[in-house]
Amino acid sequence: MKNFSLSTKIFISLLAGMLCGLILFYYVPAGVLRDDVFINGFFYLFGNGFIRLMQMLVVPLVFSSLVCGTMAIGDMNTLGQVGAKTIGFYMITTAIAISIALFVGSVINPGVGLDMEAIKVSEATAAESTGVVDTFLNIIPTNPISSLATGSMLQIIFFAVLLGIVLVQLGDSTNTVANLFSQFNDIMMKMTLIVMKFAPIGVFCLVAKTFSEIGFDGFLPMLKYMLGVLSGLGIQCFVVYMLMLKLFTGKSPITFLKKFSPVMGFAFSTATSNATIPLSIDTLYKNMGVSKKISSFTVPLGATINMDGTAIMQGVAVIFVAQAFNITLAPVDYITVIFTATMASIGTAGVPGVGLITLSMVFASVGLPVEGIGIIMGIDRILDMTRTAVNITGDAVCTTIIAHQNDAIDNTVYNKI
Description:
It is a single chain. The chain contains 18 helices and no strands. By secondary structure, it is mostly helical. It starts with 5 loop residues before the first helix and ends with a helix. 76% of the residues lie in helices and 0% in strands. It has helices at residues 6-27, 32-73, 76-108, 132-137, 144-150, 153-170, 175-196, 199-214, 223-249, 253-270, 273-288, 292-305, 308-324, 331-344, 354-365, 373-376, 380-405, 411-415.
């Protein structure tokens, strides 16, 4: 294993964790050894311990990288163009994603013929609905220190970018502060590399715990729903993103997928976009030649507002629950779902399972029962892992496109096999 790269180790750990989990689920009887020692002991401790280590780094890393990224872009016109293009890309792809999901759901009809008695229903939690105006107002922090302490990512991003802009405008008079942030960012990157050495262990434990708890049996009654979500995710990731990459940069999608696939595997295993930020920035820089002055800005922003995978799940879930409860949706309802799901993605925390909470807002917008969320909660972990991989792929594609348009990508590195 010492001769393998970190990416290879993560992939091996991912596959080994799946195999180990399935063996425990099907061949090891329930009891103290399986449930207490392995699943809720070893796997839970080291898996969630690794997630906590990554979460520990997210806020200081995002804050420092955004300040440095904003300072590196420097020119205000360029910064404005990069910001506008990035936000526009994320909003458009989210709208496309939810549209694809509604189309796929209408074709597959996941809720038709559903055996409700065969499904384990969990208790669902409803999210508080926030108006469009309040959604944008919540971006502005009333107390930046409190935002940093609570991990309010959109507010952190707003303050960090504003601070970076001010440092650029003040120029040489604030070199001491600018150097402080640059050095702090270097420290956080180094700390990230240290934590990432434990990634194979964390990935193995997280995946093993997931599969040892649900196996394949929990999927069977929900196969059509899962097929709908996975089909939508596949179309978004391998068709929409790759076409946009080819159209706007002319670069090979095959090369992109080959080099970025380890990050997708890491996102799949952790099911958190935030934890993947450091690895995404590092991989884009080392393997594809994307300048960190671009990725330090676009990747953290994408981890907060670009939730295409979540939007796809919500679109298919709307069709699924409507059919399961024999509720007919009008054309205007589909438009409402597209708008609501797109708005709900803004500020959604990049942590496991948050899509189910915001789904209640989407359901409420078209009058679907929130109890329907309980039907899909049992098998959502696997879908959550998959849609996280799609989310961070969208972030990387956007970053590559923006870098290409700003001559901030080394084509020699990108094309190197």
